[in-house]
Amino acid sequence: MDGMTRRYKLELLNSYENFKCIGSDCDFTCCSSWQIDIDKPTHEKYIQSDKQQGTRLTEHLIATDAGATIRLNERGECPLIQEDGLCSVVCQLDETYLGNHCTVYPRMRLDYNQSATSRIMLSISCQEASRLTVFNPEPVRLVRDFSEQHSALQIPLLADSYHASDNRHEGLLHTITENFVKLIQLRSVPMKKRLATVIFLTDQAQQYQLNESIEHCQAFNNEVVALLKSQLTTIPDDIATDRYNQFDLVTRISRLLLKTIQAQPIIYPVDHKVSQLITQSLQGLAIEDANHLNGQHYQNYLDAGQRYVTPYLDRNPHIMENLVGYHLLKGNLLFPAEQNRMSPLLLIMLYVLLIIGLSHGYARYHGTLDDEKLNELIFSLHRFIDHSQGTQTFLAGVCEKLSATSPEQMYTFFD
Ligand code: SF4
Fold first, then answer.
1. Which residue's CA is minimally distant from atom 8 of ligand 1?
2. Which residue has a Cα nearest atom 6 of ligand 1?
3. 52 CB neighbour count, 10 Å cutoff
4. Under DSSP, is residue 118 helix (H, G, I), strand (E, B) or coil?
5. Helices within 105-156 (DSSP H only)
6. Whether the Cβ atoms of residue 16 and residue 122 lie closer than 8 Å to each other
7. CB pairs under 8 A, 24+ apart, for 296-305?
């Protein structure tokens, strides 16, 4: 049933209301790299506009059953973007001529059918959305909105609705998510311990198969609540960490990601961007060939950690917290059963690990680490993963391998 007709409760990401596209100030416009669909009514408007106003918009379109898709230029960018970075559709006509896809991004709507709840999020593959969400000193959270006609409800669904077996099951999955967010936001507990707790619970979650049984959900939630109540005192303080493991895993993944990009038939701007970021990160550690690592490279990694990454993350405890919290709220626990081949929690941890790991060499390459530099890594990597099916499959494979690893081994990845 459509969100406009069924009365849905709204939950908005706290950064949602502050979001406004920064247009030509954006360093990495979203008008490139991925398929930009034009819905049928908008396509019809373009045909009329070409006829009546001579705009020639349809020259850049390929008609499809659902309307049309924009033919990207040889650089993988939308040909309707002007040299000043502004959209020619808006400049020549007005914003009402933008298709759903262009109007909505980076907003996302997820519907939870059992509880008749719509969750409105922002995709952090957008530079500005990521800045507002991850770099906000306020903890990431959902804001409930009870107004009946909120305009956010007009955002078309960008993902399938989530299907839990019944209302109680769905409610429990939401409660687990909320408790995970509380857990990662326990600022009195060192971040290393909070991440270790998420890994511990990730391991437990795999055994519980949350999507299949209410009883399993209830038992798992009891564990999470007990941990929360204890302020994580039941998790040992002396968690063994080993930065070499972190360094080794991140450089291996970096090498494979570069290989994946180079093997692609079309290299889009986001591929160039991520390839450049990874290359700079490796160069920052003086790695010329990621197949041949030596002790000096590892020393450089340690040096980058001590000089840039650890002090910066210690000064800004909200960043990793918000990154994990955001992914939890995006509904990663509530995957439809057929997509539940691996623990979604593991994917979150892998993503966080990549960001931390790549920021080492990247900071050393630039001689600094600040919000702008880290944001560049976060939104670019996020867009790259969203854009590429191949990368998603690759990361799913890494997660499957990691899921065979013991939690003790995984703790060592996060120093
Ligand atoms: S990425 Fe975000 S800020 Fe940049 S042009 Fe797109 S919507 Fe605007």
1. 21
2. 30
3. 8
4. strand
5. 127-134
6. yes
7. 297/247, 297/251, 298/244, 298/247, 300/361, 300/364, 301/243, 301/247, 301/360, 301/361, 302/243, 303/364, 304/360, 304/361, 304/363, 304/364, 305/243, 305/360, 305/415
CA of 210 to the centre of ligand 1 (A): 35
Structure tokens at 370: 């600040």
Q: Which two tokens stand for residue 233?
A: 């005192």
Kindly give the distance from the C-alpha atom of residue 22 to the centroid of ligand 1, in angstroms, as a whole number: 6
What is the whole-number distance in angstroms between the Cα of residue 269 and the centre of ligand 1? 14
Cis peptide bond N-terminal to 156, omega within 30 = no
Q: Which residues of 221-249 are buried (b: 16+ CB within 10 A; e: fewer)?
A: bebbeebeeeebeebeeebebebebbbbb
β-partners of residue 70 are 61
What's the whole-model pTM score? 0.89
E-assigned strand segments in 243-384: none
* Most confident residue range from 164-168, 211-215, 283-287: 283-287
Q: Which residues pair with 285 in a beta bridge?
A: none
Tell me how many degrees the CA angle 16-273-294 measures, rounded to the nearest 5. 115
| 145 phi, psi to nearest 5 deg | -125, 125
149-197 pLDDT, tens digit per residue, is 667 667 766 555 555 667 888 888 889 889 999 999 999 998 888 988 9
Determine the residue type at 10: L
How is 79-114 classified by DSSP, letter by letter?
TTB-TTS-BHHHHHS-GGGS-HHHHHTTEEEEEETT
Atom index in ligand 1 nearest the CA of residue 106 equals 7
Residue 108 pairs in a beta bridge with: 121
Cα 236-237-241 angle, rounded to 5 deg: 100
The beta strand positions in 123-188, using DSSP E, are 142-145
Separation CA 131–CA 321 (nearest Å): 14
Residue nearest to atom 5 of ligand 1 (CA): 29
The tokens describing 160, both together, are: 């399938």
What digits encode the pLDDT tens for the residues 188-210?
A: 998 888 988 988 888 888 777 77
